[in-house]
Amino acid sequence: MTRLFKSREALLALVIVLMTALIAWRFPAFIAPANLASVFNDTAPLMILALGQMIVILTKCIDLSVTATLALAGMAAALMNGAGVPLPVILLAVVVLGAVLGAVNGLLVWKVGIPSIVVTLGTMTIYRGVIFLLTDGKWVNAHEMTDGFKALPRAVLVGLPVMSWIAVVLIAVFAVVLNRTSLGRAFFAVGGNPHAAVYAGINVGRTQFAAFVISGALAGLAGYLWIARYAVAYVDVASGFELNVIAACVIGGISIAGGVGSVSGVILGAIFLGVIANALPVIGISPFWQMAISGSAIIIAVAFNASQSRVKGRIILKQADA
Amino acid sequence: MTPVLSLRGISKSFPGVMALSGVQLDLYPGQVTALVGENGAGKSTIVKVLTGIYQPEEGTISVDGTAMRFATPGDAAKAGVTAIHQETVLFDELTVAENIWLGHAPRGAFGLIDRRAMRSKAVELMRSIGADLDPDEVLKDLGIASKHLVAIARALSIDARVVIMDEPTAALSHKEINELYELVETLKAQGKAILFISHKFDEIFRIADRYTVFRDGQFVGEGKIVEVSETALVQMMVGRSVDQIFPKRTHNVGAEVLRVAGYNHPTEFADIAFTLRRGEILGFYGLVGAGRSEVMQALFGITKPSRGACMIDGKAAIIRTTTEAIAQGIVYVPEDRGRQGAVKGMPIFQNVSLPSLAQTSRGGFLRLAEEFKLARDYTSRLDLRAASLDQDVGLLSGGNQQKVVIAKWLATKPRVIILDEPTKGIDIGSKAAVHEFMAELAAQGLAVIMVSSEIPEVLGMSDRVIVMREGRIVAEVSGEQMTPETLVRAAAGIQEAA
Asked: Residue B82 belongs to a domain with what CATH number?
């Protein structure tokens, strides 16, 4: 039992299971496989964005501009669709555009040395401003989008929508990249101890740059998925959602100080928020409670992590005595 | 004459280290007492005891003959003791006047700060020490010398009777130093008791009236400066230090591995040239801030020398980044292990493999089994005590963390290993293990550079010693020339022979 509690991922999973059981007790339909799949699908954009945010936070940075990148890439996708650009080209374009926007963040952090919170606070406004310039503030509505454009995220493949499959594939890729590649290791080392990373021959700035590029590329992809799914594009798409993304990371045990975290934690963090967002309206609890619950979850998660590291301190002393 | 402040039998210990054992110190009004001692003699500790930051376990502090207890820095300030630190502890974003009066500003109506009085009194105070600074100037716009003046004005503002100056001239230019000396004279004339900590013999003999010598946390002697010679003072500082046992080494020095020529840096060092051979331990001695670590960091590609060449095995080597240094077989175990060494939160085996990932991965993918094997090979050689190699490095004790860091560098199979203060802050038992290990590395043909500020360690371990002072190499000694006296003289810049 103690061992189980030691892994914050296991604990979070347990909390999610208990919470789901509680909801199922009131509304058994909630745990019908089809509904769970739809909750997962609903949470997919959050997961995708949180994976990108996670590596940025691992390197001691933060990316507030993810949803602005999402909105700009999504609008670009909608406009390209309107201009008759084929879907595969659009998909490639949103990923590249997202990566470029991420690279702008990354370069400002790496080469100019501006703290990432300031850089992305600026670019989040600039990127949304660009959408306004592109569209004069006009919306792109469902009837202005082709059916193929709107259908892709919903197309069902082996029982799950494409959007869910994209999230699943990305989770797998991230698990491999973070645990089994030098770049993944570098993210941890740079955040864990930037000075030591320099001595070990790791370029700290370049690693942070890479994190921003990846986060941007994922935001770009999520931009298409979001716009196509909700079939509307406008300046304020997903505005404020970046805080949910960061919340998913924090609840999932990603240390805001950098260097600590896991893919499974982030995904569980996102699922936690996804379950709350989907279940509370079903039970008839007001959305304000939803905010209060996710807010409390953040504080509890951080407090739990802090208390856990204090327990570790006592362990050292015992070993030193032995 | 009776001392203003008198310490008797002061002892202070830290886990594993006796920082001060039964030391005494007397400070007299209108006199400058120089506190001299090697690095680690306990000078900084006594300053912290005097300013209430540390509480001694034993001993008495008396002010004007009355025993006092400085439980907090506030108590010390109330008793009139104030310190001007190496790095002045002032606030960059506040003005001169605000810095002087922070915490005890003159009050006006409703207990609010009277800014006008604050400014005029600040001007008055500064005039009394011959300073002419604008009280509204923000501190960060001032030079170091002016900041010192502000610190001194602040000291006077709390009616200090004892002023502690901890290496005040370390960062000053020649002209600024002379101004500081004048200021010390002014303070003396005002009857302040001054404790002056310095490594520079010329200034000690110029401005001090008395001296007190500490060695290894113990009081060695005191007296009037006119009654002592430089040589006598050096001997008191160095003394017959506690016999430390160093591993016996066979000196079989091989072919030249590294040659550094004409290394220059615009601000940190100049004209650095030396050679290093296989199986050799080359000691780098000097005072803190002599530029030794800076040279090593340039050699390791962290900073860039503006000029100079480096040859490895007779071939010119270009080292621009740490990655290139590691590829050339040079590794650096930094002094600040907490900041520059281990990545806490990361398991031991990943810490060890961090610079060697190119070797342990294949096709861009890491092979954890290989990393584990590498970590096991090198940590077992160092007798690392850990529950598992999967354990977080942050959970290990200091000595074991040091072993992980050394294992990390050995795993890169280096030709040259640079150890910066390898035994700083670790207990005596671990020290012996590190020394043992260093000897073993040299015996295996590795070329070792050891930067150390501890004379017994430098003498006990090195085949050859280079002494640096103010960014330059001032002496290179080997064999019989390697005596404590030569090292201290060279490092302190004492010119004439004994």
From this structure: 3.40.50.300
